[in-house]
Amino acid sequence: MKVLDWDDFVASSDLAPLSVTIGVFDGVHRGHQKLIETVLSKRPAMRCAVITFRENPKKLLHPHTFRGNIFTLDQKIEAFSAADLDACVLIDFSRNFGKLSGAEFISLLARAGVKFVCVGSNFRCGHKMDTNAQTLVDLCGALGIEARIVESVLQSGHPVSSSRIRNDVLEGRLAEAAEMLGKPHVVGIAGSERAGGGFPALVPVADAVLPPEGRYIVGLSPDVGLSPDVGFDSETAGTRVASARIGGGRIILDGLDPGSVGRVAIINVVSQE
Fold first, then answer.
1. 3-state secondary structure string, 205-261?
2. Contacts 24+ apart (CB under 8 A), 139-146
3. Residue 262: C-alpha distances to residues 121, 204, 217, 253 (Å)
4. Distance in angstroms (rounded) separating the CA atoms of residues 14 and 48
5. C-beta of residue 93 within 8 angstroms of C-beta of residue 122
6. How many angstroms separate the CA atoms of 116 and 138, rounded?
7. Which residue in 153, 140, 118 sits closest to 38, CA to CA?
8. What single string gives the DSSP state of each residue in 96-133?
9. CA-CA distance, 45 to 65, in Å (whole number)?
10. pLDDT confidence bin for 266, thresholds 50/70/90
11. Predicted confidence band of residue 232 (pLDDT cuts 50, 70, 90)
């Protein structure tokens, strides 16, 4: 899978004709997976890509209410690659980029050779969110681009969304979050240190979403990450199950030397403090 910067993407039509979906894709949850499946349905007539952001735009636009990321950029790219997409286009969101109207953004997609776009029903883009999903369909039609609105995947009668998953993790509803993600919530690890009592503590990447302070069962994985099908038992190659306390933005292991850990799956809650 090619990973391209937005500027390089719009300056060339090398991937044309192209089928794309657009969004933040935090968590690459079941709703996002449905969008990707729709994009891939255009093969072999078109190449297939996702257009996303290097950093969550909410962090820049609404820093005081930004509640963190479910996935790191590396996790997103790995998920896109595993889905067998041809390309991932990364937008470096800035105030200037945010001034583009929806119509201007879609005209740049046309210039890059995009011939099919699918988005969720709650999609919005452009300066001051001037373009919703139906407007996007109309604008694309005027430029000869086929566009489709994909209905939301429902869980417990409500649309699966990154916001719901983020809230569930932050409030300790890990089973509900896992249902929407299609696997347990996995946190990227930046490093390790020693906590009080000398226990090893894993330091999550910046802006990682963590559940409330308490004790949890976690799965430790090396840098290669975790497959969606990992059962998190001690027999799974490269994955170890451990008891841990989450607090102070750290994952403190119960005396276990973590070794080389790139990701931690927070599987289940034992008790919350």
1. CCCECCCCCEEEEEEEECCCCCCCCCCCCCCCCCCEEEEEEEECCEEEECCCCCCCC
2. 139/102, 139/103, 139/106, 140/106, 143/106, 143/107, 143/110, 144/110, 144/115, 145/106, 145/109, 145/110, 145/114, 145/115, 145/116, 145/117, 146/115, 146/116, 146/117
3. 35, 9, 17, 15
4. 12
5. no
6. 13
7. 118
8. TGGG--HHHHHHHHHHTTEEEEEEETT-EESGGG-EEH
9. 42
10. very high
11. very low
Q: Are 205 and 72 in contact (CB under 8 A)?
A: yes
26 within 8 A of 69, measured Cβ to Cβ: yes
Chain-centre distance for alpha carbon 254: 30
Q: Looking up tokens 């089928």, which residue turns up?
A: 19
Provide the residue count of the chain: 273
Measured N-to-C along each axis, helices 30-40 and 174-181 cross at an angle, to the nearest 10 degrees, of 0
Environment class of residue 78 by beta-carbon count within 10 Å: exposed (0-12), middle (13-18) or buried (19+)?
A: middle
Alpha helices in 69-205 (DSSP H): 73-82, 102-111, 133-142, 162-170, 174-181
Query: Per-residue pLDDT tens for 184-225?
Result: 999 999 988 887 667 788 999 999 999 999 999 998 876 444
Q: What is the pLDDT of residues 158-173, one digit of tens each?
A: 999 999 999 999 999 9
Nearest residue to 98 (alpha-carbon basis) of 70, 64, 62: 62
CA distance 19 to 47: 6
